[in-house]
Amino acid sequence: MEFIKPGTNFDFVGKMKVAFGISMAMIVISIASIVWHGGLNYGIDFAGGTIIQVKFSTPFTIDKIREALRPLGLQGAIIQEYGQGEILIRIAAGASEPTGLSDRVAQSLKGALGEKSVEMRRVEMVGPKVGQDLTRKALLAIFFSWVGMLLYIAWRFEFRFGLGAILALVHDTIITVGAFSILNKEFDLTIVAALLTIIGYSINDTIVVFDRIRENMRKDPKKDLAAVINESVNQTLSRTILTSLTVILVVVVLFFFGGAVIHDFAFALLVGVTVGTYSSIFIASPLVLVWERYRPTGRKRKK
Fold first, then answer.
1. Helix (H) / strand (E) containing 41
2. Where are the alpha helices (DSSP H) in the chain?
3. Long-range contacts for 243-252 (Cβ within 8 Å, ≥24 apart)?
4. Rounded to an integer, what distance in angstroms lies between the CA atom of residue 54 and that of residue 88?
5. Domain residues of the chain, as ranges?
6. Which CATH number is 49-126's, of 3.30.365.10, 3.30.70.3400, 2.60.120.260, 3.40.190.10?
């Protein structure tokens, strides 16, 4: 199936400066948002503390729940609705004695809303040191995924291709994380898993384009690199768009109908796949061209 008719010749390289400008603006906005918010809105996995999921069989209000928690000294806890008739109570590390905390919360809520109307669904506790360790390991996982891909692509293709691919991945990761910061969404281990999924998806898209570039360079070694990149991106454009659309359709369904548990994971994939498709077309390959112009290959120097 051909989404784009064969023989198309969109000038992607000619729009390189515009694309770079848009990307730089999105990256600056993402970083500025993170700085403005004083960092990401870390979930219990990274920040430490206790999270309690409660289901109610009778109507409730957030104010009534907060009032019920006041005698426990938890009036500063974060309370948010979580699906139909459920809430999440997030208690920061050190806000209260963790021993027996869930039992005290349960008794307070039952006293305010009725013994049979409250069901404790989930209790998770993470210490501050564990949270710091998880943060470090999450960052290392993302960093080493970049390094591993850079080494592989540099060996399988050339260093300039590896550099273009990794810079595109960094671009995708920063913008996806920035979207979470702008919307003040919670950032936890599930989102790290989504970022690694996005990195894998985006690099696959980029490799397909790079492979076509290499194939076309072998067919006509004297052809200008900019023309080869344009030709290659156009030749793979139908495949890129079709693949991305099918993934996005699935992710959209998960986002709207998958439930609260995977809502943020689906949101991360939705942003990441969209940005990753854009970077595979407008960022990765043009970066190879930029590198070639400033650091030409040995064969070009000899000419």
1. strand 41-42
2. 16-36, 44-47, 62-69, 101-113, 128-156, 159-182, 189-219, 225-257, 263-282, 284-294, 298-302
3. 243/205, 244/205, 244/273, 244/274, 244/277, 245/3, 247/201, 247/273, 248/273, 248/274
4. 7
5. 13-42+130-302, 49-126
6. 3.30.70.3400
Q: Give the C-alpha distances (Å, rounded to integers) separating 12 from 142, 206, 228, 280, 283.
A: 29, 15, 11, 11, 10
* Averaged pLDDT for residues 263-274: 94
Predicted confidence (pLDDT) per residue in 212-262, tens digit:
998 998 888 888 889 999 999 999 888 888 889 999 999 999 999 887 778
CB within 8 Å of 22: residues ≥ 6 apart: none
CATH classification code of 13-42+130-302: 1.20.1640.10
Q: How far is CA 268 from the centre of its chain?
A: 4
- Percent of the chain surpassing pLDDT 70: 92
Has residue 297 got a pLDDT over 70? no
Per-residue pLDDT at 182: 95
Is residue 42 classed as helix, strand or coil in its secondary structure? strand
Please state, in angstroms and as integers, the Cα–Cα distance from residue 191 to each residue in 5, 23, 88, 102, 247, following that order: 37, 22, 18, 26, 18
Categorise residue 199: left if φ over 0, alpha if ψ from -120 to 50, beta otherwise.
alpha
Judged by DSSP in three states, 296 sits in: coil
pLDDT for the residue 6: 66
pLDDT-derived band at 299, boundaries 50, 70, 90 = very low
